[in-house]
Amino acid sequence: MSIIVKQMHGFFSPNSVAVVGASKKINKAGHVIFKNFADNRRRGVFKGELYPVNLHEDYILGFKCYPSLSKIPGGVELAVVVIPAAAVPKVMEEAAAKGVRSVVIISAGFSEIGKPEIENAVVSIAKKADIRVLGPNCLGVYDISTGVDMLFLPETKVLTTGDVFIATPRPMAGHIAMITQSGAFGVAALDYLTGRQMGISRFVSFGNKCDVDESEMLEYFLHDQETWIILLYAEAIEAGRKFMRVAERVTEKKPIVAFKTGRTKAGARAAASHTGAIAGSDKIYDAAFAQVGVIRVQDMEEFFDVGKAFAFQPPAAGDNIGILTDAGGPSVMAVDECESKGLTVKEFSEETLREFENLRLKGVFPKFATSLNPVDITGSATSEMFELSAKIMLDAPEINALIVLGLHHTPALQEDFVDRIASLAKHYTKPIVACDIGETEMALFIRSRFEKLGIPAYSSPEDASRAIAALVYYGEYLEKKGCFDDYVERWVRRRDIKL
Amino acid sequence: MSIIVKQMHGFFSPNSVAVVGASKKINKAGHVIFKNFADNRRRGVFKGELYPVNLHEDYILGFKCYPSLSKIPGGVELAVVVIPAAAVPKVMEEAAAKGVRSVVIISAGFSEIGKPEIENAVVSIAKKADIRVLGPNCLGVYDISTGVDMLFLPETKVLTTGDVFIATPRPMAGHIAMITQSGAFGVAALDYLTGRQMGISRFVSFGNKCDVDESEMLEYFLHDQETWIILLYAEAIEAGRKFMRVAERVTEKKPIVAFKTGRTKAGARAAASHTGAIAGSDKIYDAAFAQVGVIRVQDMEEFFDVGKAFAFQPPAAGDNIGILTDAGGPSVMAVDECESKGLTVKEFSEETLREFENLRLKGVFPKFATSLNPVDITGSATSEMFELSAKIMLDAPEINALIVLGLHHTPALQEDFVDRIASLAKHYTKPIVACDIGETEMALFIRSRFEKLGIPAYSSPEDASRAIAALVYYGEYLEKKGCFDDYVERWVRRRDIKL
Q1: Is the pLDDT of residue A277 over 80?
Q2: Is residue B281 located within the same domain as residue B335?
Q3: Between these two residues, A496 and B56, which has the higher pLDDT value?
Q4: N or C: lower Cβ tally within 10 Å for chain B?
């Protein structure tokens, strides 16, 4: 384990944690955070020692309380600090004396409000004592496997009617690591990922990033077995060269999907007044990301859509896309979007066309179906036609990836077309994504069935096309770096374990 | 009523309908369509006479069956034709003899499979007899108020497990008219609109459009009281000048949102093999749409998002957008998207800044809040802060439209901020759209609450920004044409009736 990995490990897997500013008051962040740890400890998820630090309490939630870090009998690896900014430097001195390795400062009121002095004091103490600091002004860490949970936003909310609603849910376990500069967007993302059934490995928000930054987190996630994909939300990346050095090593093994905002002039101004971020020229980010194989997305939806694509599917070995549909209009939308993204949707080779012709002669392919590309098996579509057509396209050497636009509305189509395509997919390493349009029962069922069987499904043809475009870009990058085969081999191994 | 309006009226409000090819067989389109009419007649929704036409049956669903159109005792205004293509010209001859005014040909197998002869025969008979024809190869008409329902796709589907699921739902009543060339996209759209609780007035799909085209439908919807917004999906508009003439008159009164696909070269090729459409140069469409005030969207989601914006909100009187948020990151996303769409997010006037400063001095605006634009009331946000800030922004003459990014996750924010903003909105004619991010309980509740109170709500900052951009473009066009005040006056009248 490199020194950075070891240091970052302290934030995610500490053997002992002190919550400085732990509280009994239900609405205080110091209460919510301490309760998260206490609950997870009782459940046996968080296995470390846990100490509340508060001058005025003897016990909090059954845990003996200490007036300061120095009074805690055992060692403290990680301190979570939830007290007013002005008192933080003193806590840092105590942490240094106590031998604390990692400090997360949740509290706000530092450089983001134009007061860099306290933050500078914190950094200077940390440097001397070799303490790594996350924050200040951040949400900290949420780690599903170790039970480290610093999210202080209420998991449920009580409406004025008295009804209780889930407000800030925790997603299920999975393999996406999320790094976010914005805390507000971070929790919103957790809410989104939960609702869309996308699993995460770990989550980290670092706010002002006075010490630990995205590059060190990337380094950590590179070595983290549970993390296969990294989603990065950033308003500015100040240490550009450091970022590129790390990112280049990471992307050989794991995709980094970056949502860098402040891309317009007014956006950059807004970012500056938000986290004090100096966004810099947007084109420089474009070039830098492309150089080290970071996939950049343009909006929030694409961010998650692309993340989902990587969670399920391998990269593509080329840019020619096959489109299979029972709905002409939506296939035109998919072609438009693929082409806009620089992909191609070429007509088939003569051999592939002959295969389709054979199906037609056998009577299993509808007479009026189009077998160019997109393949449109029309409103007469059956599960069998979807399966047979998908097979021809996956076998066709000229096709690198497949978009299945299986609109469920056609009368003869049974929902088992999903299962048939998923079974077929197991024999190939070409990426497949699906789309069904609609927001009522059957559409929701079809999309969720696809995803249960490992094929990411989208609610519009354009979303599906953007997802496949990311798989193409990343494939091209891996090829260039000579890492494509290794990546796909690892992906196949993981898939086969799940099967 | 102009002659065209009168003719089109025959498709939506016929006094008597014959279904040629009505059937007892459950899976036949001729059965589903006849049953739709029969059910709606029993419910008292469809008030016209109804006649099944079938050589081999005496009765269908309790209705006396006739061997041909000519044998029907009463008059027939509209014939819906669901028999094989080859037999259609003969039916047209009978329709001509019978004095039928309108024919919808649902059947496929005409020019779209390279057989123009039958279609030409149909057109020539229709021309001579002054019959208007919709189709062939189409879904026809769905009219929620008159009970005309030609959708032959199964409303429910039985899974292989035996469970019954809604598959092709009918949306609720509302004021969006939908015109679509693609039938498959048409039903998918109905599914989407149903799930998103967007109401429609009427729906029409015209497939090969051998006679009636989008321009005539636009003319009809211009005069249709129930229709306030028109969504148009097209792969090609052949009669360009005619379209522009009509569209120009329509857009003075009602927004037309156009989703024109085949915008790339490969997309155009796909469209050609789908409906035989010659897509033409995409830039020409851009220019033509802009000239006559048609709002063009780039993808499916934007199509519906913009439709929803017009269903709820007035156009904007300028392009400077106010953004109000409790979440810094998402507000940067909104600014980026606004600026990319050519809008501005300018800093406030000194007067507006002073208003915010007053709030801060009174202690109702958080100390660390940003009052530039976006206004970020931070994680300390309360309902009151949202209301007070929104009021300042709606009062500010430099702000033409408002995006409220109210992320529900912040601890102190109660859900009644939605009601407060909606109450406030009633006193202004500036458009407001909202966004909350998340896919679990609270986010779904917040978005649906906004929409119940007349403010369209989106699940990403970019979607909200695209929606507001359309309200700005349309406002600019109306101003140029001198129709802005009339439009807003009509909009206010409708809003006040609802209140």
Answers
A1: no
A2: no
A3: B56
A4: C
Minimum distance, in Å, between the CA of residue A370 and any CA atom of chain B: 7
Element housing A485 (H / E): helix A484-498
Given pLDDT bands bounded at 50, 70 and 90, which one contains residue A353?
very high
Chain B hits for A184, Cβ within 8 Å:
326-330, 379, 407, 409-410
Listed residues A290, A309, A328: the one ending a domain: A309
Exposed, middle or buried: residue A242 (CB in 10 Å: 0-12, 13-18, 19+)? middle
Q: Are residues B349 and B290 in the same domain?
A: no
What are the residue ranges in chain B where pLDDT is below 70? 273-280, 498-499
Nearest-angstrom CA–CA distance, A237 and A215 = 9
pLDDT band (50, 70, 90) for residue A205: very high
Tokens describing residue A165? 């609603």
CA distance B435 to B419: 14
User: Cα–Cα distances in Å, from A36 out to A78, A206, A391, B4?
Assistant: 15, 19, 49, 68
Extract the tokens encoding B357: 């400063």
8 Å CB contact of A153 and B183: no
- CA distances from residue A289 to A182, A257, A480 in whole angstroms, order as listed: 20, 10, 15
pLDDT at A66: 98
Q: Where does a domain end: B309, B334, B350?
A: B309
- Whole domain around residue A282: which residue ranges? 3-309
Looking at residue B114, its pLDDT comes to 80
**Does pLDDT of A191 surpass 70?**
yes
pLDDT above 60 for A476: yes
Q: Residue B376: which of A168, A274, A372 has the nearest Cβ? A: A274
Compute CA A97 distance to the chain's CA centroid, rounded to the nearest angstrom: 37
Mean pLDDT calculated for residue range A436-453 = 96
What is the distance between the alpha carbons of residues A156 and A254, in angstroms, rounded to a whole number? Answer: 34
Contact B339 A266 (CB under 8 A): yes
Is a pLDDT exceeding 60 seen at residue A209? yes
Q: Is the dihedral of CA A225, A230, A233, A239 positive or negative?
A: positive
Cβ-Cβ contacts under 8 Å, B368 against chain A: 108-109, 112-113
Tens of pLDDT along A294-349? 999 999 999 999 999 999 999 999 999 999 999 999 999 999 999 999 999 999 99
Look at residue B85 and give its three-state secondary structure.
helix
On whether both A398 and A290 belong to a single domain, the answer is no
For residue A190, the domain's CATH number is: 3.40.50.261
The verdict on A349 and A223 lying in the same domain is: no
Q: Do B169 and A440 touch (CB under 8 A)?
A: yes
- The rounded mean pLDDT for chain A is 94
Does the beta-carbon distance from A153 to B440 stay under 8 Å?
no
Tell me the pairing of strands A256-260 and A229-234. Answer: parallel
- Out of A182, A194, A439, whose CB is closest to B440? A194
CB-nearest to B166 from A157, A414, A441 is: A441
Q: Do A151 and A183 belong to one domain?
A: yes
Q: Which residues pair with B259 in a beta bridge?
A: B233
- Within this chain, do residues A322 and A266 fall inside the same structural domain, yes or no? no
Please tell me whether residues B171 and B300 are part of one structural domain. yes
pLDDT, position A276: 57
- Segment A115-132, tens digit of pLDDT: 899 999 999 999 999 999
Written as six digits, the tokens of B66 are 């006739």
Half-sphere exposure of A206 (CA within 13 A, CB side): 25
At B109, the amino acid letter reads G
Give the contacts of A78 (CB within 8 A, at least 6 positions apart).
Answer: A10, A11, A14, A16, A17, A18, A100, A101, A102, A103, A104
Indicate if B116 and B246 belong to the same structural domain.
yes
Report how far residue B51's alpha carbon sits from residue B37's, in angstroms, rounded to the nearest whole number: 10
List the beta strands (DSSP E) in B379-479. Answer: 401-405, 432-435, 457-458
Alpha-carbon distances of A204 from A38, A180, A183, A466, rounded to whole Å: 20, 6, 9, 26
By the 8 A CB rule, do B302 and B466 touch? yes
* pLDDT at residue A117, rounded to an integer: 94
